[in-house]
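Thread: quick sanity check before group meeting

JM: Hey all, I'm pulling together slides for Thursday and realized we never actually wrote out the predicted structure for the chain we discussed last week. Dropping the sequence here so it's in one place. If anyone has concerns about the input, flag it before I start.
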Amino acid sequence: MPAHKENRVLPYSPDQLFALVGDVESYPEFLPWCIAARNRKRERDGESELLWSDLIVGFKLIRERFTSKVTLTPDSDEAEARIDVEYVDGPLKFLRNHWVFVPREDGACELDFYVEFEFHSKILEKMIGALFHEAVTRMVGAFEKRAAELYGPGEASSAGVD
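JM (edit): ok, ran it. Output follows.
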């Protein structure tokens, strides 16, 4: 089962990064292998916004569509802003994914990213597993690059990969 955890300190506010990651429909503009994205349903659940999002991802001859429920929870007095992704439908057995946006005193944001999934197909699992960590690191980097495009270059970020 591929899993990846990454913490990065980025020179953007938690609100900026929360807005960027929560804008699922913009993913095809900057995210590697994301061919299409749409939110098919939106609703509120207390302080959180819920999105049912469809993504089409592709690499070479492989093209897959999957649906996930995305919970956007802004920061509050009790907790940091976070985005949680639950798998709904597609080629996976399951998906666990979260983004937590921790404010720092210097105005930057500590980004806590985690993803774990399993495919139904063991063949697809083997194909993806070999490239998984590199692909996820590249995807997180794409969000960082997009932040620089939207919000301007910040100070040099310190990155740590677990």
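AS: nice. The two ends are 16 Å apart (CA to CA). Confidence is low (pLDDT under 50) at residues 156-162.
JM: adding both to the slides.
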